[in-house]
Amino acid sequence: MFLLICVSLFLATTKIHSQSEDDILLNKASWLLYDQPQEAIKIADYIIKKTSSPSEKNLKAQLILAESGLLLSDYKTAITCLFNTKEALDVFPNQKLKNKNSILFASLYRQLGLLDKAKQALEFIPKDKDLKGRFYFEQGLIEANLKNQDKATSCFNKSLDAYKSLPHTQLSSCLIGLSRLALAENSLETSEKLDSAFTDTSSPQLLKHISKKLQAKFLYDKEAYNESLALLTTLMPLENSVKTTELRKQLFEIASRDYYALGDFEKYLDYDEQFNALEDSLINIEKEAHIALYARMLKYQKKTVNQKGESNKIKGIIILTILSLIVAFLIFYRVRQHVLEKKKTGGDTDHKSNNDLVKPQEHESKTIVIPDDTKYQIIQKLNAFEKNMEFLDARISLTSMAKKLNTNTKYLSEIINTEKEVSFTRYINQLRIDYIQKKLAEEPTYRKYKISYLAKESGFVSHSTFATTFKSHTGESPTAYISRLQKKEKNNRI
Hints:
By secondary structure, the chain is an all-alpha fold.
């Protein structure tokens, strides 16, 4: 009997020790997400293999994997882990984990542009202080995306207060840092105070990189372009140091702007090309994520209905499935039409020049839902943009134009694609060619100018790009076009 008691005590002690070790690993993984995400993923995988599902530690590890997916734009992993956890929590109730799962769902929806669903996912207020911090942090990011700066600032301050009330640990310090950086990004003028922030070796890499991005952006806005580049240079090459694709894209964009402002067009084009490549890559990733998300939502709803045996919900799922297939078909049809159009036209010739400062933006492959009032406002602003002939600015780009119109690049690109039925580049170049054609036709003096002057006058940086684009839009070279106008004028006099 005594031996049995000793064995039981030994087994209980071993179990407690094992649980404690798992908890330590999970806490470490939560911090490593912001410093070495691949190491956090390894720990989470280890815990998942070691523990049974559903269990608290297994689900915590699943949520760490989901969060890593959101940080690294690995939406497939995030969607799988979030729904696995959601299904497990249906049979293994745990309110704290359920709330965290909802917060991460909100983050997923926000990143995919589904802001209404993101807000719906946060229709609760958690009691736990650490979850309150994350809850208000995510609310702030949603409000920031909706351009509600004051509401975003209020949410970030609530998040900061919640995190400050937690016991001091590496993770709590990291979360406090994230809230501070979110406040700075929401109100860029405060970024000046970040000069010495997150420079010590204990700060996680993600915080250091975000801090440097905000400092570089602040310096750019202050026209301190060399200082901005010097700061970004410490992260080069970005592919090796910055693991998050979205952040890497933003850093390339700032660097390209710096080089443009300094007149180094060769490096501007290089960095702008890398920015555009990442932008296109993220758009394709998000498009695939939308399809995967809706497919998993349907699967979850079907499983729930089967468990409850409600036939009316089955009908709803069938309808949703049909609608999803229709949407998927429309997306496929649109992409296919775009590819066929490019094959017929041989591609946009104005996209082939490396000297034209208007870079190609291939955003047509993603269907974006834009609120009607937002769409109307952007169209009105586009009309004013054309009327004021702002397209003659050689520095115009999709990013700068979106900023000028107080919108984002995705909305602007989508509206130009659907309303003007051309890409951003072709839209700008068509306006420029139409402008110079009108000048040549109505003001004979313009026919005496050099082609290089006409190129500059119409907003082109490169003589050769102007000539190529002009011929692409009119069917004849600028010289031949001018010659024809002169002959026509001469014949009219006779």
